[in-house]
């Protein structure tokens, strides 16, 4: 009988100590899912003069030409391979193994923290965990959100408008290197969701050390020559404008999730685009990540302590996971688990030999790439 364990999502730790996030490396991902380690070619730069709001920009323009790259059957949008290749490059450069207990994407940890606050209907948890070389690797097996509606549906237009907003407010290079013609043609640019820039960040809570991959929307001001540019990154979001009390409450829930996303990896700036019912961009507002807890505390008594509560659950969950999973430093030993949300608990179950997923998880490349496994088994670090 394999290992099983669970944790109640209302469990909290007293510790709120956090490690300062530090960028270890980065990579770019192209529309065909090619991974370019140490390459910043897909990093965008924020540029949006307020005067452009007078143009009443349509956030559904070009929707029929949208390139939905994540729906390709040849693409695994949840793959850890780019993250692992960047970690391997870091270990070769530093001649030491990355110091981490848990390695995954920011979105996975955000999903696990959100399980204590959101309905499982809107936040399904279905993860696979591999323990290898004394470290825990977590991968999401649910497909990320895509829209199944038609281009005429409100659902699809809402989905598309977020990508269109990013396209309208960013440029591919620093402003002095972008032609006036390119700037003026931004509203007609074909939008895709395949080009990505991913930062690899070391962070932690309590005694747990994590390395997280996080997609970065843009540089807000300028990029430094050093590897660590976390303080210059920004998160871009687009939502319907707030005109009623009910809409204000929905936005407060939304901005809490955005805070969580940024807080986890040390992104300090959040930029929201607000649209009307006809998907015309009406305003652009900037927030600092640190001011979000104060905004929530002042405006919504129900959310006054939600950020601190999230940190306490973050610490409780990671501590439980480290205490529950045996971590053998023998790189030849690989064990697999499934983590799901059931009845207000996160439930962990070992996947044993004979299970339909076992071969792909333990011996295949469903989570860990063969290249990374060979590197760790051969490296004297």
Brief write-up:
With 381 residues, the chain is of the alpha+beta class. 28% of the residues lie in helices and 26% in strands.
Q: Count up the helices.
A: 9
Structural class comes to alpha+beta
How many structurally independent domains?
1
Mean pLDDT across the residues is 93
Largest sheet: 10 strands, mixed
Describe the structure.
With 381 residues, the chain is α+β, with helices and mostly antiparallel strands. The chain is 28% helix and 26% strand. The strands form 3 sheets. It has a 10-stranded mixed beta sheet, with helices on both faces. The longest helix has 19 residues. The two termini are 34 Å apart. InterPro entries: RAI1, RAI1-like_fam. It is found in: Nucleus.
Keywords:
alpha+beta; 381 residues; nucleotide binding; hydrolase; RAI1-like_fam; RAI1; RNA-binding; 4-stranded mixed β-sheet; 10-stranded mixed β-sheet
Summarize the SSE layout with pairings.
Blueprint: E1 4-8, E2 18-29, E3 35-37, E4 45-46, H1 81-94, E5 102-105, H2 106-114, E6 126-132, E7 135-140, H3 154-169, E8 170-171, H4 180-184, E9 196-205, E10 208-215, E11 218-219, E12 233-240, H5 245-263, E13 269-275, E14 281-288, H6 292-299, H7 306-324, E15 334-342, E16 345-351, H8 358-363, H9 370-378
Parallel strand pairs: 5-7, 5-10, 12-13
Antiparallel strand pairs: 1-16, 2-3, 2-9, 4-8, 6-7, 6-15, 9-10, 11-12, 13-14, 15-16
Helix pairs in contact: 1-9, 2-7
Organism: Lachancea fermentati (Zygosaccharomyces fermentati)
EC number: 3.6.1.-
Family: Belongs to the DXO/Dom3Z family.
């Amino acid at each position: 009988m394999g290992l099983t364990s669970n944790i109640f999502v209302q469990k909290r730790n007293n510790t709120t100590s956090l490690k300062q996030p530090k960028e270890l490396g980065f990579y770019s991902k192209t529309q065909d899912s090619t991974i370019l380690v140490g390459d910043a070619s897909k990093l965008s730069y924020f540029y949006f003069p307020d005067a452009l709001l007078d143009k009443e920009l349509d956030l559904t323009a070009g929707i029929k030409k949208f390139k939905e790259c994540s729906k390709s059957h040849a693409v695994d949008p949840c793959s850890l391979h780019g993250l692992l290749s960047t970690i391997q490059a870091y270990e070769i450069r530093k001649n030491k193994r990355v110091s981490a207990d848990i390695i995954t994407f920011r979105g996975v940890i955000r999903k696990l923290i959100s399980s204590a606050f959101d309905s499982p209907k809107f936040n399904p948890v279905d993860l696979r965990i591999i323990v290898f070389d004394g470290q825990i690797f977590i991968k999401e097996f649910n497909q990320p959100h895509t829209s199944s509606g038609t281009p005429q549906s409100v659902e699809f237009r809402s989905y598309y408008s977020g990508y269109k907003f990013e396209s309208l407010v960013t440029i591919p290079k620093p402003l002095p290197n972008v032609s006036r013609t390119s700037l003026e043609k931004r509203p007609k640019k074909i939008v895709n969701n395949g080009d990505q820039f991913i930062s690899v960040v070391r962070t932690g809570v309590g005694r747990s050390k994590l390395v997280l991959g996080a997609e970065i929307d843009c540089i807000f001001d300028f990029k430094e020559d050093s590897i660590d540019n976390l303080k210059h990154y920004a998160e871009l979001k687009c939502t319907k404008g707030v005109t009623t009390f009910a809409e204000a409450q929905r936005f407060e829930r939304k901005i809490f999730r955005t805070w969580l996303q940024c807080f986890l990896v040390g992104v300090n700036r959040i930029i929201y685009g607000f649209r009307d019912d006809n998907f015309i961009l009406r305003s652009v507002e900037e927030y600092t990540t640190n001011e979000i807890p104060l905004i929530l505390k002042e405006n919504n008594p129900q959310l006054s302590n939600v950020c601190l509560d999230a940190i306490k659950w973050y610490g409780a969950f990671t501590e439980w996971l480290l205490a529950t999973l045996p971590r053998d430093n023998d790189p030849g030993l690989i064990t697999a688990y499934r983590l799901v949300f059931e009845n207000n608990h996160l439930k962990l179950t070992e996947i044993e030999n004979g299970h339909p997923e076992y071969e792909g998880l333990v011996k295949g490349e469903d989570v860990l790439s063969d290249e990374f496994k060979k590197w760790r088994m051969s490296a004297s670090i």
